[in-house]
Amino acid sequence: MFGRIQNIDNRVLDNISRIHKPALNKIMITASRAGNAGIVWWAICLPFLINSNWRATGANFVFGLAWAHLMGEIIIKHIVKRVRPCHTLDDDEQLIDRPRFYSFPSGHTTASFAMVGVALMRCKVITFMPILMLAMLIAFSRIYLRVHYLTDVIAGMILGLTCGICSVLIFNTVVPMWFPMV
């Protein structure tokens, strides 16, 4: 079964490599860099944290990102220990530096979809849709740049959504019980 999944992952990478173009390469590199260390997501959190009307949503974003990082980067990656495609496949054209850490799940995607999960639960469509579109772009960029397999990204989407949604549910039920004034 895992052999079949790996074959699908490799075919997806090969097919996406066929659409590489200089302008698209720049877009994907920029999207991927925006996700480095969650920079774009922390920047999006700031206005929510600053505005008192949105502070609870901002706290949900922060909690969701932190939980996603803990689960994906600190726990799951070190259990699964999947080697990245850029370290195992012949790459004539590596567009970004090869990441040093494990591949599964995609950390960029996990963080991105944690934000989507929170936005789905807490934000209006006008806020949710740009977050979703940016998350999808960052997720796709990781496959496009050959630093993740499709299954790494799918797992990151599922884990991130779960962390984001659960962060809202936990924040809205547990925190008020412990800290009634929050």
Give a quick set of tags describing it.
single chain, 182 residues, Vanadium-containing Chloroperoxidase, domain 2, globular, membrane, transmembrane helix, cell membrane, Phosphatase PAP2 family protein
In words, what does this structure look like?
Keywords: Cell membrane, Hydrolase, Membrane, Transmembrane, Transmembrane helix. The chain crosses the membrane at residues 27-49, 126-145, 157-179. This is Phosphatase PAP2 family protein. It is a multi-pass membrane protein. The structure is a single chain. Helices cover 75% and strands 0% of the residues. The mean pLDDT is 88. The chain has helices spanning 2-17, 22-35, 39-50, 55-80, 85-88, 107-122, 125-144, 150-178. The chain has one domain (2-178): Vanadium-containing Chloroperoxidase, domain 2. The protein has eight helices and no strands. The protein is globular and about 55 Å long. Helix 2 packs across helix 7 and helix 6 packs across helix 8.
